[in-house]
Design a protein that fits this description.
Elements: H1 2-20, H2 26-37, H3 53-69, H4 76-86, H5 97-114, H6 117-131, H7 153-170, H8 173-188, H9 215-232, H10 236-252, H11 274-289, H12 292-308, H13 329-345
Helix pairs in contact: 1-12, 2-3, 2-13, 3-4, 3-5, 3-13, 5-6, 5-7, 6-7, 7-8, 7-9, 9-10, 9-11, 10-11, 11-12, 11-13, 12-13
GO molecular function: hydrolase activity
Protein name: Putative glycosyl hydrolase
Pfam family, one: Glyco_hydro_76
Length: about 350
């Protein structure tokens, strides 16, 4: 309890204010912003205008999450359209293994919604291609790219997450074995610091390169460990996930409890996607642990987005603390994930 109180102190002021304010209808806010995301959807290409290939996977994931949360949503046709248009390019469209991981998780979510085997089949194909990137260069782990230039956190976290998700849906021991193997390597890789923050990757000597602690590296691992806990019936993974989550909250939030990456404006279309990925995965960890601090964090960020970081058309910008500047499919879908995450825990 003492440790929990310590971590809650930086957020306490905003939480007290949120309790005194009128109740937020997070589901309604998420519904409005999900509809607004379709402003960027290209029916002909199946992806989202003005953003990248992997970002479109996150847009699709956000819509799938919304569909799962709100049965009145109508995004199943969008998922189907994107799948059919791109069904022959999933393992060839990109030279990066992390891109494959984002799409694999998107289609696993589509499978959860529809139980249509075609979505799970593609996720398995993507995983098999990712597994080809396993290297002995640093005694394990997968490469970030097919040119084999970098071993980093995000590709390996996604590989773990996809394996664990598939393990808990197919009950094929192959996926559980891969998930355990990946985690055993990742935990000892040096990318997780003694403070439970995760740096971007490894240098040429297979040592922690000390690069930026990004919110999405702190986030993907949470969902991965939740799924690994389910697949292995081992709650010890949740203990590690909680430590990593709290380290991120302590390191990456401002005095009002709002999440930031160390570089936001002017950092390109990748960074603008990161924060929502953290919140999405933190909501999964909250469901597994019922840690009240996580719920408070999610609600605080959703409130700040709705109050400070949207325009009159419910389009959501980059800086969740405000002021609103402009939005694109990446900034919007990232913030939308935070609204959906808050909606998913409201009332729990």
């Amino acid at each position: 309890m003492a440790r929990l109180s310590k971590y809650l102190l930086p957020l306490l002021g905003s939480f007290v204010l949120s309790q005194a304010a009128p109740a937020y209808d997070y589901l309604s806010h998420a519904r409005s912003s999900s509809d607004a995301l379709m402003h960027w959807y290209n029916q002909g290409t199946g992806v989202f205008n003005g953003t990248g290939w992997w970002n479109s996977a996150e847009c699709i994931t956000a819509l799938a999450d919304m569909q799962g949360l709100d049965s009145t949503s109508n995004f199943l046709d969008t998922l189907q359209n994107t799948f059919e248009i791109n069904k022959n390019v999933w393992t060839t469209k990109s030279d990066f293994y992390d891109d494959e991981g984002w799409w694999a998780l998107a289609w696993i979510k589509a499978y959860d919604l529809t139980k249509d085997q075609k979505y799970l089949n593609v996720a398995e194909q993507l995983f098999d291609d990712m597994a080809k990137g396993w290297t002995t260069n640093c005694n394990g782990g997968i490469w970030w790219d097919k040119d084999k230039t970098y071993v980093n956190s995000i590709a390996n976290e996604l590989f773990l997450s996809v394996a664990a998700h598939l393990a808990s849906r197919t009950w094929n021991i192959k996926y559980l074995n891969w998930a355990v193997k990946e985690w055993q390597w990742f935990e000892k890789s040096g990318m997780i610091t003694k403070n439970n923050t995760i740096n971007d990757g490894l240098d040429g000597s297979c040592k922690n390169n000390g690069f930026t602690v990004w919110s999405y590296n702190q986030g993907v691992i949470l969902g991965a460990l939740v799924e690994l806990s389910k697949a292995s019936f081992d709650d010890s993974y949740l203990v590690t996930a909680r430590d990593i989550a709290w380290a991120a909250i302590e390191t990456l939030t401002d005095s009002n409890g709002v999440l930031h990456d160390s570089c936001e404006k002017g950092c390109g279309g990748d960074v603008s996607q990161f924060k929502g990925i953290f919140n999405r995965n933190l909501a999964q960890l909250y469901t597994a642990t019922s840690d009240p601090g996580f719920k408070n964090f999610l609600e605080t960020n959703a409130q700040s987005i709705w109050k400070n970081d949207r325009d009159s058309q419910n389009r959501l910008g980059l800086k969740w603390s405000g002021p609103y500047s402009k939005a694109d499919a990446s900034t919007h879908s990232s913030a939308l994930m935070a609204l959906i995450a808050a909606a998913s825990v409201q009332g729990s």
